[in-house]
Amino acid sequence: MNEMSTRPWPAGDDDKFHEECGVFGVWNATDAAALAALGLHALQHRGQEAAGIVSLDEAGIFHSHKGQGLVGDNFGDAKVMASLRGRAALAHNRYATTGETALRNVQPLYADFAFGGFAVAHNGNLTNAHGLRRALVQRGCLFQSTTDSEVFIHLIAISLYSTVADRLIDALKQVQGAYSLVALHNGAMIGARDPLGVRPLVLGRLGGAPGEAEGGPGWVLASETCALDIVGAEFVRDVDPGEIVIVDDAGVRSIKPFGRQQSRFCVFEYIYFARPDSVVEGTPVYGTRKRIGAELARESGVPADVVVPVPDSGVPAAMGYAAEAGIPFELGIIRNHYVGRTFIEPTDQIRHLGVKLKHSANRPALEGKRVVLVDDSIVRGTTSRKIVEMVRAAGAREVHMRVSSPPTTHSCHYGIDTPERAKLMAAQHDLEGMARIIGVDSLAFISLDGLYRALGKPGRDMERPGFCDACFTGDYAIPLTDAMGNAADRQLSLLQVSQ
Amino acid sequence: MNEMSTRPWPAGDDDKFHEECGVFGVWNATDAAALAALGLHALQHRGQEAAGIVSLDEAGIFHSHKGQGLVGDNFGDAKVMASLRGRAALAHNRYATTGETALRNVQPLYADFAFGGFAVAHNGNLTNAHGLRRALVQRGCLFQSTTDSEVFIHLIAISLYSTVADRLIDALKQVQGAYSLVALHNGAMIGARDPLGVRPLVLGRLGGAPGEAEGGPGWVLASETCALDIVGAEFVRDVDPGEIVIVDDAGVRSIKPFGRQQSRFCVFEYIYFARPDSVVEGTPVYGTRKRIGAELARESGVPADVVVPVPDSGVPAAMGYAAEAGIPFELGIIRNHYVGRTFIEPTDQIRHLGVKLKHSANRPALEGKRVVLVDDSIVRGTTSRKIVEMVRAAGAREVHMRVSSPPTTHSCHYGIDTPERAKLMAAQHDLEGMARIIGVDSLAFISLDGLYRALGKPGRDMERPGFCDACFTGDYAIPLTDAMGNAADRQLSLLQVSQ
Amino acid sequence: MNEMSTRPWPAGDDDKFHEECGVFGVWNATDAAALAALGLHALQHRGQEAAGIVSLDEAGIFHSHKGQGLVGDNFGDAKVMASLRGRAALAHNRYATTGETALRNVQPLYADFAFGGFAVAHNGNLTNAHGLRRALVQRGCLFQSTTDSEVFIHLIAISLYSTVADRLIDALKQVQGAYSLVALHNGAMIGARDPLGVRPLVLGRLGGAPGEAEGGPGWVLASETCALDIVGAEFVRDVDPGEIVIVDDAGVRSIKPFGRQQSRFCVFEYIYFARPDSVVEGTPVYGTRKRIGAELARESGVPADVVVPVPDSGVPAAMGYAAEAGIPFELGIIRNHYVGRTFIEPTDQIRHLGVKLKHSANRPALEGKRVVLVDDSIVRGTTSRKIVEMVRAAGAREVHMRVSSPPTTHSCHYGIDTPERAKLMAAQHDLEGMARIIGVDSLAFISLDGLYRALGKPGRDMERPGFCDACFTGDYAIPLTDAMGNAADRQLSLLQVSQ
Amino acid sequence: MNEMSTRPWPAGDDDKFHEECGVFGVWNATDAAALAALGLHALQHRGQEAAGIVSLDEAGIFHSHKGQGLVGDNFGDAKVMASLRGRAALAHNRYATTGETALRNVQPLYADFAFGGFAVAHNGNLTNAHGLRRALVQRGCLFQSTTDSEVFIHLIAISLYSTVADRLIDALKQVQGAYSLVALHNGAMIGARDPLGVRPLVLGRLGGAPGEAEGGPGWVLASETCALDIVGAEFVRDVDPGEIVIVDDAGVRSIKPFGRQQSRFCVFEYIYFARPDSVVEGTPVYGTRKRIGAELARESGVPADVVVPVPDSGVPAAMGYAAEAGIPFELGIIRNHYVGRTFIEPTDQIRHLGVKLKHSANRPALEGKRVVLVDDSIVRGTTSRKIVEMVRAAGAREVHMRVSSPPTTHSCHYGIDTPERAKLMAAQHDLEGMARIIGVDSLAFISLDGLYRALGKPGRDMERPGFCDACFTGDYAIPLTDAMGNAADRQLSLLQVSQ
């Protein structure tokens, strides 16, 4: 899901990539909404700004609760949980943009169709949503949100097909872009991935407690395996690219309306997004990150006294690097996990202390040392510069930055909140320039081939790379229809709500 | 506006009629939203459960704020008011039903059409909304609220006409029921009353400060004249039954697409709903109520020591009665105006104290007296019974109830929240039975002819009564299409939102 | 209770007197806290800014809940009410000043003494509180609030007497000023009035449900009889000036430690503060107000077409005036009771609309008429001026103001929030000047003797007036010790709390 | 600071020790309150339940804001920060018990003394507070909180000395227990540590921006050096055991009224409480923890495939263990840092999933492995048992628990929230029993001598250990006066507040 925007590319508010969403669905389970809340909690890293759950009860009534903030802040109330009745539920975590649009854009989206209620949760981004929306509004469709995901709803509503599955397929055939979605109607839970399988989606099965089966097993669809683990569901398989799975009381059926295409799974899920204990597309994330670190050490080793990760995301790569390089791994930077929702409005005097709210230097581990800093990526470079400054202020003699991704030179159009190209440091500067900007003695990124080697390939196959790596290569496998269009057409709503 | 309901007739939570809404619109005024808030405040008696304002700024952007509760509780915040930019605004007070549906049903409703933004506020109730909604959903329209008013929005969205006014007329021609509505789009403010003019709507003109004109005068549309007074607007005229007025920078235009029909203005506005200082359809409310009281004294005089109103609504009729009968008018019942939103969850021991939260007996004015109690209406009879009990407990020797409306024997389908017939005391009991139930020594209602006499007619003209008095006569001038249909078809939304 | 202040005299934020408090205590009743909430509700007119209840359970544990705003807003929650366990409770309504001090100053005050818990609620104002506080702080006592009432607590804490009653008497003997207080400890409820009986306090007895006795009757102490009525308590008697009543399971005992003094009950309770249905010091309020109106008509009659009250407080006097003068009583001003806690931050353009939030002119009742306006008092004159302006704008031909109190020339030091003398219109201008300022054709106040006649006396006895009328006469019967002192000494707390 | 309790020993709500507080004071700095908020943020690990800041402005007025929850949740509001005016501030983080007492117990405490305002923040626990409180109440002192810290306030208030410093020393001489406190009055900031220096306190100096000096340097007192780092203060020195430092515009003065005693600094600060990047009592925490891990490996090595920390606190010890043992260090357990304030009310079905909200197993790193799990301590054993279970469920072949503290056999009375002895696993079971309970193949704790060796000593000197290790040894260096007394005397307040 992505908020459609008049800005060419939506921009995050700090110097990191942001995954836009986590999705979770459960079918045929006691306490379905509680399982959904747990699943969302395990997927919290995919979106911390808003969360929503829709449940479906035995009488065909849907129950919804959504809120800003963490899962645990919104679904801890016993009354709320009790209101989310039923044995099926759908849930969504959002990395939201700020401001008035927030509430009406929180998913799952819901609609009363002629054939009954329907809810959908979407991870990804559609690349022809603006054009579709324009055409739908022209036809008399009234949009309530400014998310691209709402076009699914209207396309389904106006489809001339009769079954829900056929209407959904009809809708999917009209959209372009990346999507992993889970939908719920009175009769089935449906999962779908776009034909290239850019965003992840896995299927799990509930055996015993807590979601024990009544008249058959329970089923879970989720963005990552860590959400299966927390609810005690057994991993069954990844949903295939272009596959639609229909889960109902008869079991799981699969439809593949798009034929066979080569997968282009998002390689950044391995580098940064996915939780280290998840297994994505058959490969454990944690081990992959350590292997990338080891590749990095082989490619760009440098004499040093300590290898220090930028926590938490840089830790596994730093461990791999340290082991390969034979240099001690040290926690030279401590992360403060207690950062609240808001913090001090900084005055001029304290503004430059900002970055230290999250990270602090562990001086005794850095003082007088030659330090290899390992981070997962550099986007704008501002955070890196501040961290390097902090490490030097703590007495490091040399600072060598090693990055476990190739240089990020292009924006993502498939669901990751990346700044526009003009703000990507690697799109504007060569290696030497970047090193100077962030203030390091040396700088190296993993090579594209090195990254693919860590993923078990001999290198990047230019014809059939097997992953989406557009942010490093500009090789956009799905057409960027809206991006080619007229930015002036992108005004989506004339309403601004004061909440 | 009315929440469409699966219940045959929506039922209020206490023993009074409830007007469902007040509407207010302003065009071409400095501080338009502030004027709208003041106008809503003056119309607060028409709905206390929720309030909303939508403004329209010079750039064509709409700004919205809605909330539960009183106007003063929602529009006192300087930030909120500052966000409601522009020289035009639309506002709505709601008497809402409780529960989850509240927030999405708060008006004004807004939609992004292909031709731009559009907001509408509606007072009244449509009698064929269920059928229209079913057809629209069948066509692929997605409803967001459960109010009947939303059908206006969709009918406009799918209209094949090109101008906004034509689309609105197209929509109005398809609906049945009572409506006074004000709409706003980038270019004009539009007011409309249903062909029989059941609900009120007046036009006013802003001269000097505070809403002084820039390049022409400002204009106001409101449910009652008291809302013109508070913003310093001059009363121009009532909007006619079936008239559509279009207010734009060129001035006020009038369209009458429904031809000429006999007016059936709601007579209960005179008896209870309208504020006493309003002038409705050319006649001051306060004086009318005193005349009804005087008629009542002539029709059903009884020897007594004091005439006591049930405050506040019974006061003018009691004054008229007392003057005509030559019996002293006394404040024998004191009303406590500080009743908060919620109050004590009554235990069994204190439940019977409930009614006393609003009223208390002024014992010295009642003790040993023969009391004529004057009230405006009796719906279920439960409140009346408790008040009579309280008056007797304070020492009244005799209690004679005189009611300034005829017996309420039928439910309203045109925008007033009335209980179903089975709960209307006058539909179930004769005069004697009612007197026994509420515990009075005598009971009398104004006669239908007496009521019309107080309104300046010789009596009720059975052919052309000139007012809607269906709640007393069952003479429903607008077809009750939905009410004839199948109650099972009235399920509007399968979603329940926990807020 | 009064917030001690560095300002010479505390000043209200609008142009009315404000009673500072209502007190209510109940002993030996089922649902004691619920009865206390009802009692507070009936006393809501004595203070709308904050409310608090402390209950005492069988185990000797006290339970407390306090909040800003109306009783109904704070004591409607079932969990809150359930937490207020026990068969005894103490409650307090406050007319509070704004700002940070609010919360810590909300009563009842509570303290853990060596002999157990103790709670107290106070209506009135101490005139030597600053000096006592200074001495107590010098001794090492730590004050938590800035209310004068807290000196009671510390004086009791450090008293060398052993019983609670003796400690309380010891404390009372050291304070000067006006107080009606109710206290609660494990063993008894205690009521006390200052030796001159300036503020009211009544004793009631609970018979049957809802606060039915278990092992003896229940007892109530309250500021006014209307609070007895709402809980179904029978009026027993006023507590005498200087009397201490001790209510425990053995019944009611009386102590009169101050000897016999002449009563100086606050005459303004009759004019404005008390609820019209209360009987204070044996005399019904409603009838007294009507008699004052009749006196006023006799003293200062003027040819006119209508007598119009400034609602709600001016209504009974206007009725008395109208009846005596034989001029019709009309509701020429309508009061809007829906004024929320806050309202629009007025811009310059709408600031002058301010007063109309509460009152609106009923034009048809005023147009072309010679109007006698009846109000209870004039303080600063600003509100009166705006109301007269509004009445004239509605078309009144003449406006004659008649006031049911003598000119307010002095500030109250005994518990009423009055502006300093410099802001009292009657202290600065003669009758003619006042008439000019408020813009009336004629102005008259009731005479002092006329007021006493309406109270059943032959006139004011200069030696033994029998009432406190210091605000009209400057005859302060209780020494104004603090007011004589150095204003610089009145800084009470160096702490400002941001809530 | 500790909430005084009727329970023999306060008990935490989960299976970890809890440090009760962090304190921070700043003198002579621009944006003093903002620095205090940053300092609190750096000390957030010492208390997450409530936070408070009191500032002192140039006019001698104190400004206070306190709230439940994280620093960032309470001090992010610009209005709040703007209200905390002045160049000096005092701040406190609290690990609070739940329930009604929370708000009145949040520090800093403040009092208006005869000599002016006074605020104090306290880390530690007094062991004779009950007795002192009883005596003070007997004398007429009224307590507002139920914290032991309030006795400081009253002892100062009633002291017969004249200077603030002398009154504070007078008070300190009467208390027993552990305390590091910072106080603020108009004239000076004062820091004090108890004679044995059980709890930490450091002094720092502000040079340039952001808290640049005006007429002299600024000064900081804080629980740990990490709070100096975040505000850019230079570490000056630890405050000595028994030392009182007085910081005013003349600089820093030192008073040592207790003579010279042997330090008994809390050894658990090294093991668990202090942040790894802090330097406490001259020794870096991070290095110490790694040395403890290495000692543990030497003492209790076991053949294994991986060393896995229980994150985050077990990480440095696990790194030390792994390096010493030559076994790979792996992140076999992932910690979820997004745990909100509340979470799902667990139904029976999902209750056993509870522990997984914080930790999840990284299956690929554990499957088929012999695992050494390293944790910092075991209190009740319940968390350990669940973690071991989770690790086994993820496929671990063997699980060996190694603990970087000796067995916790005694409760702490000096400021750490420990369960009573009966709930300490090590107080009730031998090593074998413990291993069976938590379900491991082997279990070992660091030895007492090993711990001292890691701290640079040859072992524990039984005569002069140099640290407080009472929780491992029962060697309580400060008398436990209250604990010896009668539990029935420990009722502190009879008031329960519903908030």
UniProtKB/TrEMBL annotation, chains A, B, C, D:
Cofactor: how and how many bound: Binds 1 Mg(2+) ion per subunit.
InterPro entries the record matches: GATase_2_dom (IPR017932), Ntn_hydrolases_N (IPR029055), PRTase-like (IPR029057), PRTase_dom (IPR000836), PurF (IPR005854), PurF_N (IPR035584)
Alphabetical list of SUPFAM superfamilies matching this protein: N-terminal nucleophile aminohydrolases (Ntn hydrolases) (SSF56235), PRTase-like (SSF53271)
Binding sites annotated in the UniProt record for Mg(2+): S313, D375, D376
Pathway given in the UniProt record: Purine metabolism; IMP biosynthesis via de novo pathway; N(1)-(5-phospho-D-ribosyl)glycinamide from 5-phospho-alpha-D-ribose 1-diphosphate: step 1/2
EC number: 2.4.2.14
Annotated catalytic residues: C21 (nucleophile)
Keyword set includes 4Fe-4S: yes
Residues where [4Fe-4S] cluster binds: C266, C412, C468, C471
Coiled coil: none
Residue ranges annotated for the Glutamine amidotransferase type-2 domain, each copy included: 21-250
Cofactor(s) needed for function: Mg(2+); [4Fe-4S] cluster
Keyword entries, A-Z: 4Fe-4S, Glutamine amidotransferase, Glycosyltransferase, Iron, Iron-sulfur, Magnesium, Metal-binding, Purine biosynthesis, Transferase
Entry annotated with the keyword 4Fe-4S: yes
PROSITE patterns per the UniProt record, alphabetical: GATASE_TYPE_2 (PS51278)
A Pfam family it matches: Pribosyltran
Swiss-Prot/TrEMBL catalytic activity: 5-phospho-beta-D-ribosylamine + L-glutamate + diphosphate = 5-phospho-alpha-D-ribose 1-diphosphate + L-glutamine + H2O
NCBIfam families the record matches: purF
Family: In the C-terminal section; belongs to the purine/pyrimidine phosphoribosyltransferase family.
Function: Catalyzes the formation of phosphoribosylamine from phosphoribosylpyrophosphate (PRPP) and glutamine.
Protein's recorded name: Amidophosphoribosyltransferase
Source organism of the structure: Craurococcus roseus
Gene name, Swiss-Prot/TrEMBL: purF
